[in-house]
Amino acid sequence: MAGNQKAKAKAEQAKGKAKEAVGRTVGNERMEAEGRMEGARGDARQAKEKGKDAFKH
Fold first, then answer.
1. How far apart are the first and last CA of the chain?
2. 22 Cβ partners below 8 Å, 6+ apart?
3. Which residues, at least 6 apart from 46, have a Cβ–Cβ distance to it below 8 Å?
4. pLDDT tens sequence across 6-47
5. How many CA atoms within 13 Å lie on the side-chain side of 16?
6. 39 contacts 21 by C-beta, under 8 angstroms
């Protein structure tokens, strides 16, 4: 299960970065902000999984 969550975190981070870049390119501030938010959500998910791994070992 943890591997699945880690993959979701990476996908969310990548999607956020892509959305942020597209928003910046086309000048859409809302899309850029949404991309940053998705990236941050992915970062938080990844940090949670790393914390769980630390307690397992």
1. 16
2. 28, 31, 35
3. 6, 9, 10, 13
4. 888 999 999 999 999 999 999 999 999 999 999 999 999 999
5. 18
6. no
